């Protein structure tokens, strides 16, 4: 039965249609936010997937270009692989939803969001986030929701809930917060050095709005919600746990995981696994869940050590960071390189500079952003964790980590007027044992400064973890979590920023949410750690960007010309600009506002190209002198080329102070001459003289 529900959300109407389309999905809602329309569905398999020890959740965010009235480019004229924005949106939907499904649920679940119409003032990403939560809540799929998501902007110092396109364009903050009725379950932020206090205030402004939306969602669930289906639990049998503790005591397991060397711990667990496999060789049922049981045993051990005994697996104090180091210029021929090491996490970052014409073109739904001049790419090879597998290109995790580092550094990059380059940084993971994304931010900062990119301030990132007990006030926040603490802990709270404020946040949760005291403590601890990283580790290596780009980087000189003169520089079908490029070997970019960038490695060639452009765009006045080459000789005079596409004629009477019978007697093709402008004649033609040069 078709039912429709509406509420006013940040000055626009949010409408949820249930039963209108996609009736065969477990749950489906046709979402309208302003003129944005998204179909959100939730489906689950009837039976659990066999042979897995994780919850198989898939989240899709599908951008259809018909939603903005465009036909896809390319030969096939249809949408191809998911865009980067689609991948990042899918991850933001996944992160708050995943912890709210039962931990022992192994049925395949797919949350699909189809963007069908886009109103620039009503975010389709936000609409999909709400749609997935509502579709799952009204479905028969086990889910401990609902949850809601709100976006907060900061315009002229004031918070804006779910900002429109104009507000987003000038906002100092893009904060996405997901909450249940009780707690915050996900935070994602990019910020222009927003202070910690302001960020905390913004997070809970979003949380307050989420509570209002959840009240609305509950009315939909009350009328349209299905009874949740039963499922086959994949929980480890209690009898198995009891037997395992007889074979390997909790004290022995604690010794096995207590080491600051990842390889040592892994070898210890391999030996323990062999003991269990030998002991349970005749029990097929137990062997099938043994990996999960060992995971749970380690998890209980590590959590007890941290929460009750205040002991971390590598022996550090709760607020202590691992050994830190930084260095630059490891790679001699690249434009800039920097390496940052934190314990067994190590990132080598490389910065590459190029003309603005090499900025990335974006073919997405947001018409406000068609290109980006800063790109960060993150690579995570198998050798970084001592494993072997073929490289198949970046997955969603790599794309997400790259985007997070990119987001963290964007606020400190110079404008194109200050630094007219396209910039790419690449993070190569040399070694991984927790929070490589934050090490990437540190390494990229080093590489950018080493490359001579005049960033406003250095940026550092750090992650905190969490272990909780049975009550909300029984918890410990850990500074600088390593892989084991992330794996067995309850959160990965990443915060990046400068000395003066936060530039990016990403929170991943494994429990049903965080209270305000936990969030405040995590943000405070990352601030303290960030100060140490910047002051004691990074700034002693390089505190400010080098004054010039490296000798192997392209040099770029930028000038401004009258936009009305752009056509003269380009010439018919690009003839003039291509002639300049061929003559000098430089690259030339021209923007619509008349900004001309000349890029090359040889200063003389660049100066020559700039001279041509200035000559072409300068209106010569009577008495001004100019140089050029003879390109044509006629009976009545000679034609001089001052720059590609700009010529002038010297009459035979103006070649020499002596009488000239034949032009060839004085001038030859290719000869370099200096002329003076005589102004325009009655026909409007400009003439020149060689003999009148002073």
Automatic annotation (TrEMBL):
Gene Ontology process terms (BP): mRNA catabolic process; regulation of DNA-templated transcription; RNA processing
Catalysed reaction equations from the record: RNA(n+1) + phosphate = RNA(n) + a ribonucleoside 5'-diphosphate
UniProt subcellular location: Cytoplasm
Record's keyword annotation contains Cell membrane: no
Domain S1 motif: 623-691
Stored InterPro entries: ExoRNase_PH_dom1, ExoRNase_PH_dom2, ExoRNase_PH_dom2_sf, KH_dom, KH_dom_type_1, KH_dom_type_1_sf, KIX_dom, NA-bd_OB-fold
Entry keyword set: Cytoplasm, Magnesium, Metal-binding, Nucleotidyltransferase, RNA-binding, Transferase
GO cellular component: cytosol
Cofactor dependency: Mg(2+)
Domain KIX span(s) in chain numbering: 223-302
Residues binding Mg(2+): 486, 492
Family to which this protein belongs: Belongs to the polyribonucleotide nucleotidyltransferase family.
Function: Involved in mRNA degradation. Catalyzes the phosphorolysis of single-stranded polyribonucleotides processively in the 3'- to 5'-direction.
Protein name: Polyribonucleotide nucleotidyltransferase
Organism: [Clostridium] fimetarium
């Amino acid at each position: 039965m078709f039912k429709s529900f509406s509420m006013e959300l940040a000055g626009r109407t949010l409408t949820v249609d249930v039963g209108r389309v996609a009736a065969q999905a477990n749950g489906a809602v046709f979402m309208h936010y302003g003129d944005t329309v998204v179909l959100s569905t939730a489906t689950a398999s009837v039976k659990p997937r066999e042979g897995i020890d994780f919850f198989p959740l898939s989240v899709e965010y599908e951008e259809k270009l018909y939603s903005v009235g465009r036909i896809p480019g390319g030969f096939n004229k249809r949408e191809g692989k998911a865009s980067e924005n689609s991948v990042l949106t899918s991850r933001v939907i996944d992160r708050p939803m995943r912890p709210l499904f039962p931990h022992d649920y192994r049925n395949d679940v797919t949350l699909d969001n189809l963007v069908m119409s886009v109103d620039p003032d009503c975010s389709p990403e936000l609409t999909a986030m709400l749609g997935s939560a509502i579709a799952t809540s009204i479905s028969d799929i086990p889910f401990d929701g609902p949850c809601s998501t709100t976006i907060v902007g900061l315009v002229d110092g004031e918070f804006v809930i779910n900002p429109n396109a104009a507000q987003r364009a000038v906002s100092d903050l893009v904060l996405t917060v997901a909450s249940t009725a009780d707690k915050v379950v996900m935070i994602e932020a990019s910020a222009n050095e927003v202070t910690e206090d302001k960020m905390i205030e913004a997070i809970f402004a979003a949380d307050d709005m989420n509570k209002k939306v959840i009240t609305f969602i509950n009315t939909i669930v009350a009328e349209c919600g299905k009874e949740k289906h039963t499922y086959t639990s994949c929980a480890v049998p209690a009898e198995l746990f009891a037997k395992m503790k007889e074979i390997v005591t909790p004290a022995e397991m604690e010794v096995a995981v207590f080491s600051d060397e990842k390889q040592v711990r892994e070898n210890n667990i391999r030996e323990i696994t062999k003991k269990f496999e030998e002991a349970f060789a005749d029990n097929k049922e137990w062997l099938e869940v043994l990996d999960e049981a060992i995971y749970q045993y380690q998890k209980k051990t590590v959590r007890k050590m941290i929460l009750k005994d205040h002991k971390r697996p590598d022996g550090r104090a709760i607020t202590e960071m691992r050994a830190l180091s930084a260095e630059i210029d490891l790679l001699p021929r690249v434009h800039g390189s920097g390496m940052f090491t934190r314990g067994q996490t190590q990132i080598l970052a490389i910065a590459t500079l190029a003309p603005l014409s090499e900025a990335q073109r974006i073919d997405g739904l947001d018409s406000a952003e068609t290109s980006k001049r800063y790109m960060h790419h993150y690579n995570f090879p198998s050798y970084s964790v001592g494993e072997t597998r073929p490289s198949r290109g970046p997955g969603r995790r790599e794309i997400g980590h790259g985007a997070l580092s990119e987001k963290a550094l964007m606020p400190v990059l110079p404008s194109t007027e200050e630094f007219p380059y396209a910039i790419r940084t690449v993070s190569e993971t040399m070694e991984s044992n927790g929070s490589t994304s934050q090490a990437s931010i540190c390494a990229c900062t080093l590489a950018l400064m080493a490359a001579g990119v005049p960033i406003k301030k250095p940026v550092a990132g750090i992650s905190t973890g969490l272990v909780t007990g049975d009550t909300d006030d029984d918890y410990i926040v850990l500074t600088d979590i390593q892989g084991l603490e992330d794996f067995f802990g309850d959160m990965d709270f990443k915060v990046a920023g400068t000395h003066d404020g936060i530039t990016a946040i990403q929170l991943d949760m494994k429990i049903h949410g965080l209270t305000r005291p936990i969030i405040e403590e995590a943000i405070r601890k990352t601030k303290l750690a960030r100060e140490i990283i910047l002051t004691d580790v990074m700034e002693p290596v390089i505190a400010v960007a080098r004054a010039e780009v490296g000798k192997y980087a392209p040099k770029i000189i930028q000038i401004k010309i009258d936009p009305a003169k752009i056509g003269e520089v380009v010439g018919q079908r690009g003839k003039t600009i291509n002639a300049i490029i061929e003559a000098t070997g430089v690259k030339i970019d021209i923007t619509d506002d008349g900004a001309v960038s000349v890029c090359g490695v040889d200063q003389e060639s660049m100066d020559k190209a700039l001279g041509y452009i200035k000559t072409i765009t300068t209106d010569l006045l009577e008495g001004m002198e100019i140089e050029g080459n003879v390109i044509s000789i006629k009976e009545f005079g000679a034609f001089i080329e001052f720059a590609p596409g700009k010529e002038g004629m010297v009459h035979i009477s103006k070649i020499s102070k002596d009488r000239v019978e034949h032009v060839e007697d004085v001038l030859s093709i290719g000869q370099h001459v200096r002329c003076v402008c005589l102004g325009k004649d009655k026909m409007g033609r400009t003439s020149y003289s060689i003999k009148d040069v002073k």
